[in-house]
Amino acid sequence: MPSVWRGDPLWLADVLRAEGLDVVELTGWRRRGHGVFSDMRGVMVHHTGSNSATAQSIAAGRPDLPGPLSQLHIARDGTVTVVAAGVAWHAGVGMYPWLPANMGNWHTIGIECANTGTSPSAPHRRNWPDAQYSALVNSCAALCRRLGQPAARTIGHKEYAGRAQGKWDPGAIDMDMLRRDIADRIGTAPSPPTPRPGVPVGYYADVLLYRGSTGPQVAELQRRLKYAYSAYAGDLDIDGVFGPETEAAVREFQRRTAGLRIDGIVGPATAAALRLRLVSSPD
Ligand SMILES: [Zn+2]
């Protein structure tokens, strides 16, 4: 199980979408950043200071601080915009037990939520619309799951930089309550994505997949394993070929799921437990 991921998170949009979130990809996000990530350890949450701050403003930065200012922006309606895959200037100086001092930018994914923060002493979720709060919870859960980390690896800017910079963001967020909600979400399998019109999808029922199988249904299996069960399938190639790695990931899924036979074969029971979608063949 990887505890550390190397390289930029080019998987951001896919992982968030697989969580069922409304995702917008800001043009150029894959190449935007102040450098390349080498060791991602967790997630840091912020408020922008204004209810109307846009994802574009996070990409552009401020006169005193060039953008990107974070990797993700969450609007008040719950829309999650992927702003950058590279390192962003969001953390500044500060410290936290699993971070090297003042190095938060190089080790955490930053989330800027369009919110005034209300005040440093405001009660939990005051002025946080349900859509924005649940998008935050689900984004953090998706990222922690992808990083192979628990909910404890989501921290607030105020926890890292409160003493060093007097930061109090995210305001009106009790970080322990947020982490509890993230932990609950991590323990729940993501809901299946909403089928797009015109693309026939459904629950897989009558096709067996096993070592040697090939095609789009195998690719869909690999995608499902890789993005929803990345703790042990994160390195899986989505190549549509059911090889030894795919079989090992299927066995691991079966081992961790009560009631499944551990045979490395995807039949109806395993497919249902995986919430695998049926992909119609192009012909
Ligand atoms: Zn902040």
UniProtKB/TrEMBL annotation:
Pfam families: Amidase_2 (PF01510), PG_binding_1 (PF01471). Keywords: Cell wall biogenesis/degradation, Hydrolase. PANTHER family: N-ACETYLMURAMOYL-L-ALANINE AMIDASE AMID. Belongs to the N-acetylmuramoyl-L-alanine amidase 2 family. This is N-acetylmuramoyl-L-alanine amidase. Signal peptide: none annotated. CDD domains: PGRP. One of its GO terms (biological process) is peptidoglycan catabolic process. Gene3D superfamilies: Peptidoglycan recognition protein-like, PGBD-like superfamily/PGBD. Residues 28-171 form the N-acetylmuramoyl-L-alanine amidase domain. It catalyses: Hydrolyzes the link between N-acetylmuramoyl residues and L-amino acid residues in certain cell-wall glycopeptides. GO terms for molecular function: N-acetylmuramoyl-L-alanine amidase activity. The keyword Cell wall biogenesis/degradation applies. Its EC number is 3.5.1.28. It comes from the Bacteria. InterPro entries: Amidase/PGRP_sf, Amidase_domain, NAMLAA_amidase_2, Peptidoglycan-bd-like, PGBD-like_sf, PGBDSf. It comes from Mycolicibacterium rufum.
